[in-house]
């Protein structure tokens, strides 16, 4: 009987170990919740003071505190580390809010983040300033970008606003969102097979669910954006159509400025809801197709389109028209006006690129230290990108996998939200009926003798 009990105990232990090993490889969230988080919490609590001391994140106490410790508590005076105010757990990692003592700044903690990561045995440590004197250590227990799973719930301060779209996952486990009120225009670059199209699908799928108008410019004959036609208020598939559509958008912008002037406000959101025009997001799939010309006679059209895009980028934010410009490469070599347009595109998302110069064109003027991160994105991880903005901050992100069929299905589901704009009516794409489930795509023809 004792031998049978021993066999059962050994088999149970082996099964538990095998289950944990499988969870670590295939379901890291489960492994982190069951094993990683408790171990990391114990290691963090036990070694916190010593780790902060060896990492140079302690300061000498004030004279009053040193006097009280020496004469009242009868203890040896020791350096003071940041005070832990709050520790929280999630399915991806652990967060600790620290109160910095006088003499330390957030940059000091950021500089030691790699040493803290190794000391506490976590995958990464990111330092975020919460408010003056307080920082938050965002520790991830595993590589959250390996299998992207968006958070089920987003903080209220992140989703506050009428034009907020969760697009990707940051490497610290938080959601990367496009907030068009904060960052009205953006540039997305990336080589072929880098995940740039996946980013656009997630963005369009999120925008399709909001009360906004979507305008597409896809000069590759609409192969990328043609499927989104049920949710598009306008679509241009050739340079000639793009020229006319941009002219119509500039006219719409000027009419909206007249409306703002009539009501004495300077922003679209200051208008009464009854007369407020719907916001518009202009999605440019391949911006190089608008710049490059094959003959000298096309240069005049190119100059008109570029001038109109620059006008939209400079002024259209106030009237609720926003630009999402995408391309494989975007720099001064495209032609006159490229640099002026890029300077107006505040948000930058850089996927894997073919050369360092492309990353420098997109990130060098806002976050130079992010250029190296963009040039080291591995080719076997499509969807990984570096996102930055004019504040100088940047982070690695990755979009969840989404097929073209899934994005098209979302656009068809929310086609009833597509606004009708008189100025864009000539460019409204024709919408074909969705094929019935199980029905053949081609009608059979009888064989003739």
From TrEMBL:
<feature type="domain" description="FtsK">
    <location>
        <begin position="171"/>
        <end position="360"/>
    </location>
</feature>
<dbReference type="Pfam" id="PF01580">
    <property type="entry name" value="FtsK_SpoIIIE"/>
</dbReference>
<dbReference type="InterPro" id="IPR027417">
    <property type="entry name" value="P-loop_NTPase"/>
</dbReference>
<protein>
    <submittedName>
        <fullName>Conjugal transfer protein TraS</fullName>
    </submittedName>
</protein>
<dbReference type="GO" id="GO:0005524">
    <property type="term" value="F:ATP binding"/>
</dbReference>
<keyword id="KW-0547">Nucleotide-binding</keyword>
<dbReference type="InterPro" id="IPR050206">
    <property type="entry name" value="FtsK/SpoIIIE/SftA"/>
</dbReference>
<dbReference type="InterPro" id="IPR002543">
    <property type="entry name" value="FtsK_dom"/>
</dbReference>
<dbReference type="GO" id="GO:0003677">
    <property type="term" value="F:DNA binding"/>
</dbReference>
<keyword id="KW-0067">ATP-binding</keyword>
<feature type="binding site">
    <location>
        <begin position="190"/>
        <end position="197"/>
    </location>
    <ligand>
        <name>ATP</name>
    </ligand>
</feature>
